[in-house]
Design goal:
Blueprint lengths: L8 H4 L5 E10 L2 E11 L4 E5 L6 H9 L6 E6 L2 E4 L12 E4 L11 H6 L7 H14 L15 H13 L5 E5 L7 H17 L3 E6 L2 H7 L2 E6 L2 E6 L1 H6 L4 H6 L4 E8 L2 E4 L2 E5 L7 E8 L4 E5 L5 E8 L3 E7 L5 E7 L9 E6 L7 E3 L2 E3 L13
Parallel strand pairs: 3-8, 3-9, 6-7, 7-8
Antiparallel strand pairs: 1-2, 1-4, 4-5, 9-10, 11-12, 11-14, 12-13, 14-20, 15-19, 16-17, 16-19, 17-18, 20-21
Helix pairs in contact: 4-5, 5-6
This protein binds adenosine-5'-triphosphate.
Adenosine-5'-triphosphate binds next to strand 2 and helix 2.
Enzyme class: translocase
EC number: 7.6.2.9
GO molecular function: ABC-type ferric iron transporter activity; ABC-type quaternary ammonium compound transporting activity; ATP binding; ATP hydrolysis activity
Length: 376
């Protein structure tokens, strides 16, 4: 992964909070994760996203020490915690865990839950640390309550305080907001991110929610079928997806066969854009178009037709069928609705430089062995 630590002087010499080098885990003949490469600088909050079964939980379990890798090396704050010969037990890894169901101890009150992992500290320091953590998550007034006397959001804050109490090098958060209802989720998410930032804690947050992955992560790791497809800043993952899978998984995307000739990208809807640096090219590609890049203009002589509408509140998603039978989608403002059947001219918003694919991989430079048409 392109995971160079920030260049600031404070962190330039510090080892990454977490590294995975060639980490592989198989379950019998089934692939859990394969050859994971990841380096997370201290203080980052990385979101881990991918479809069900892609290996997110396996990755967290390997880092936490709940699984042993079959191959590769894991380090936490510069210390090897797992490799071919070494295996550090979970309680000695400086890794904190926050689960979806909060997993608080029901028979312990809030203060005792937070105190749980601090048994190595003298009692007075323990008390002080618990007090500091409860202040941090704004729950000091509920210190004597038991988990069943708390709301879902409060339980989540206790779980976070408990994970942070022993000053872990990394906190792993496994879908921490998914059991909260929609109205609460946004606030708890903002509070959690603020707490992690305030304490400078490095976090790895697993989520199923693409908006959450993009909005919360300083970096987004997209997994598919046990491998990392792309690990990058959110803007790059969305605007410059590395693969066809990432393009389709992170946001809506449609794909059209296209052609680049003398730096001009054309497809069924006409000229899409210029492709700087492709002046000598004559190659077939697929172009990735996102609904916010696709513009529609009603025109009686147009061959494309609006084929379906979806009202999303702020926007109306228009599905358009082209003459070839292929479809594109276009976001329109909430007050624009072209009825089904309307003939429309389809264009791409000015300034768009869409992702180009050859096979399943994005290309930014002309492919060497690209197909060239036979000239008569
Ligand atoms: N204990 C196990 N025994 C056998 N196979 C397993 C085991 N745990 C995970 N797997 C398999 O490893 C792969 C990765 O699973 P994992 O739980 O890491 O996926 P995930 O991305 O967390 O999925 P989800 O989003 O549904 O929780 C899957 O194919 C899964 O069936």
């Amino acid at each position: 992964m392109e995971g160079a630590p920030p260049t600031g002087s404070a962190t330039a010499c510090a080892p990454p909070a977490l590294t995975l080098e060639g980490v592989t885990k198989r379950y019998g003949s089934a692939r859990g994760v394969e050859s994971l490469e990841l380096a997370i600088p201290a203080g980052e909050l990385v979101t881990l996203i991918g479809p069900s079964g892609c290996g997110k939980s396996t990755t967290l379990r390997l880092v936490a020490g709940l699984e042993r890798p079959d191959a590769g090396r894991i380090t936490v704050a510069g210390d090897v915690v797992a490799d071919r010969t070494r295996f550090v037990n979970p309680e000695n890894r400086r890794v904190g865990l926050v689960f979806q169901d909060h997993a608080l101890f029901p028979h312990l009150n809030v203060a005792r839950n937070v105190e749980f992992g601090l048994d190595r500290l003298p009692r007075s320091e323990r008390r002080k640390r618990v007090g500091d953590l409860l202040d941090l998550v704004q729950l000091a007034h509920l210190a004597e309550r038991y988990p069943h006397e708390l709301s879902g959001g409060e339980q989540q804050r206790v779980a976070l305080a408990r994970a942070l109490a022993p000053r872990p090098a990394v906190v792993l958060l496994d879908e921490p907001f998914s059991s909260l209802d929609e109205s609460l989720r946004g606030q708890v998410r903002r509070d959690t991110v603020a707490t992690l930032r305030e304490t400078g804690t490095t976090g790895v947050l697993v989520t199923h929610d693409q908006t959450e992955a993009l909005s919360v992560g300083t970096r987004v790791v997209v997994m598919h079928d046990g491998v990392i497809e792309q690990a990058d800043i959110p803007e790059k993952v969305f605007e410059q997806p590395a693969t066809r899978f990432v393009a389709s998984f992170m946001g809506d995307a449609d794909f059209l066969p296209a052609h680049v000739h003398r730096a001009l990208l054309t497809c069924e809807i006409g000229v899409v854009s210029t492709v700087p640096g492709w002046a000598d090219s004559d190659v077939d590609v697929d172009v990735v178009l996102r609904p916010h890049e696709v513009a529609l203009t009603p025109a009686t002589d147009a061959t494309a037709r609006v084929s379906a509408l979806e009202y999303h509140g702020a926007f109306v998603l228009h599905h358009v069928t082209l003459a070839s039978g292929r479809t594109l989608r276009s976001w329109q403002p909430h007050d624009v609705r072209y009825p089904v059947g309307t003939p429309v001219t389809v264009t791409v918003a000015a300034g768009t430089h869409p992702t180009l694919l050859v096979g399943d991989r994005a290309v930014t430079t002309p492919p060497r062995n690209a197909p060239r048409p036979v000239t008569p």
